[in-house]
Each structure stands twice: as C-alpha cells, then as structure tokens.
Amino acid sequence: MWIAFVSALGWGVMPILAQWTKAGPREQLLGTSAGAVLFAAGLYAASPTVFSPGPYMISFISGILWAVGQWLQFEAFQRIRVSVAIPFICGLQLTGTTLFAALALGEWSTRFQLLLGTAALALVLAGVLLTSLQERSAGTKHGLTPGQLSILLCSALALTGYVVINQWFDISGLAVILPQSAGMFLAAITIGLLAGKRPSPRMVIRNLATGFAWSVANLALFVANGRIGVAASFPVSQVSIVIATVGSILIFKEKKSAAVWMRVLLGSTVLMAGVFLIGLTKS
C-alpha cells in the first residue's frame, strides 16, 4: 500500500515545487518535461523495453496532450493560487476520465456501479466547487473570471485526454513512459519556441526536480496497480489533490479566514469521499 502513497506524495508536491521555483510557465514546463525524459531514459537503460510503432505513437501523443494541459495549469498558477487551481483541474480531470471509462469502456456494467459512480462524481464536483469558493486572498476578486475559468477547463480537458487515449488503446506499463516523456519534451520545446522568448537555463534546471517528482509518482502508480490493484491504488494516489491544496496554502503562507479554511477542508474531504467511491466502482 505504501507505494501508492509515494504516487500521492509525488503528484502532490509537484505543483508546489514548480511554483516554488518562481519560474515562468514555459520554463516550468520545459524543466518538468526534461526531468521526465531523463528519468525515463534512466529507467529504460535499467530495464530495456521493446516498443511497437502503434503504441509508441499513441503514448507520444499522450505526452503532447499532457504538455498542453500542464502548460495551461502552470499558466493558471500565475493568475490564481495553487490551492484553487489544483482541486479544480484535478477534480474535472478525474470526472472526465471516470466518465470515459464508464461510457466508452463500459466499466460501469451494473446498476450498482452506475448509482455508486453517479454519487461519486456528484461528490467530486461538490468538492471542486467548495475548494474553489475562496476569498480574495486566494487570488480571485469575485470568483473565477471567464478567462481563468477557460484556462482551467482547457487544462483539465487536455490532461483528461492524456490519460484516456492510453486507456482507449489499452496501452499501459513501462512501455508508456519513454515515448510519453518524449512527446512531453517535444511539445514543451515547441510551446517555448512559439512564445518567442528564450527561457532562463537556471529556471529550467530548477524545475528538473518537478519532473522527477512527477515521474516517480507515475512509476509508483504503475507498480501499485500491479501489486494491490487499481481499486486500492487509485483512491490513495488521489490524496495528491489534498497534499497539493493544503500544502500550497501552508508553504506559500496564503492568508485564510476560518470560514475559508473550513470550505477548503470540507471540500477536500468531500472530494476524497468521491474518489473513494470511484475506487469502489473499480473493484
């Protein structure tokens, strides 16, 4: 079970590390993807994997989708607090991937799973709403603006795509990691070039740790799925949402009133209750 907590910890600290570097979104993305490539190359050197052209390209495209979604997430961090952006994006991503698995892959094959899954998604969305309703100290004057909302929604959509494309083609395991990281890195370079501004090498290097954190979490989830099953590992890995939300508030010393703290904690609890129920639908 502990390996699933490694996944939660890695994904939980990743956005905090990225924001702590004070780099720009493109520098954060380039450093994170470079760290992921280095990690994947080391993993491949230690455990060589045979690649097939089809799965390689699908995983490569998955990496591109991740890069787009993660870039938009980093952009969101420049406009609103991590404690607002993370539960919103991750909650919607979780909703999207769950609906895809239920509707496209037929994972909710019984009435019990349908009822349980519907209740779970309602809790997830309620948790997202509660954690997003933070006051001005969270970086929002009167709630999320249309521009901020658009960035969050597009980020969640791209990050959902990065997950479901591999699900659709039934590609999993270590064979995903290297081509996926290659797609991430190429997309990060492309986004950086389109910006027309040369990134700071120092800031990019500082974000290598962000990529390592993401990669360790990704690998840990693969291992946990094999050891304890998706039904057990999935809910535990999603504790990352709470780690990122509460951790960012404490580390970046965001000022919160008692009422806002109550909403954040209640929202996180409700969201995790939904995650737990989603885990039950997979058992």
Automatic annotation (TrEMBL):
User: Where exactly are the transmembrane stretches of this chain?
Assistant: 54-72, 84-106, 112-133, 145-165, 171-195, 207-224, 230-252, 264-281
Q: Name one GO molecular function term.
A: carbohydrate transmembrane transporter activity
Localization (cell)? Endomembrane system
Q: What is its main location?
A: membrane
Q: Which Pfam families match?
A: Sugar_transport (PF06800)
* Keywords carried by this UniProt record: Membrane, Sugar transport, Transmembrane, Transmembrane helix, Transport
Annotated GO CC locations: endomembrane system; membrane
Q: Which CDD domains match?
A: GRP
Membrane topology is:
Multi-pass membrane protein
What the entry lists under PANTHER family is as follows: TRANSMEMBRANE PROTEIN 144
Q: Which family does it belong to?
A: Belongs to the GRP transporter (TC 2.A.7.5) family.
UniProt name for this protein: Sugar transporter
Native source organism of the sequence: Paenibacillus faecis
